[in-house]
Design goal:
Rossmann fold; ATP-binding; nucleotide-binding; about 140 residues; 6 helices; mainly alpha; 2 strands; ligase; globular
């Protein structure tokens, strides 16, 4: 949600990929891809954003904290980031999502969005459940 120098962003992508592989993720057993190359993430985020009301997003504690750290100015990207996270989860019809305590409210937003979408358009998205991590 913050502007980055293109070279730094490219290096971050490489560093993150290296860290994932170093953790033992086996690319022969799972898909490893760069999310920004999959336009459906942004497309679904747009659709879900049209179903999500602004007051719900304004109540999220992460918005309040980050906005405070940006001198009371928040960007649209910061406000709608939880909707993108919901799209990331729902796009793959995830049923269980590992999250830390700090992301539980964002997962609850994804659950609410899935339920709202399903009520409006018919059963399509599973409502994802949290797998809480102690780390």
């Amino acid at each position: 949600t913050m502007p980055k120098e293109p070279a730094v962003l490219r290096q971050n992508i490489l560093d993150t990929t290296a860290a994932i592989l170093a953790c033992g993720i086996d690319p022969k057993k799972c898909f490893l891809f760069r999310q920004s190359l999959v336009p459906e993430h942004a497309e679904l985020a747009w659709i879900l954003g049209c179903l999500t009301n602004v007051p719900r997003l304004l109540r999220l504690p992460q918005w309040k904290m980050k906005r405070a750290s940006q001198n009371s100015e928040g960007t649209v990207g910061l406000l709608t980031y939880p909707v993108l996270q919901a799209a990331d989860i729902l796009l793959y019809k995830s049923t269980h999502v590992p999250v830390g305590e700090d992301q539980v409210l964002h997962l609850e937003l994804a659950q609410d969005i899935a339920q709202h979408f399903n009520k409006k358009y018919g059963e399509f998205f599973p409502v994802p459940k949290a797998i809480l991590s102690e780390l």
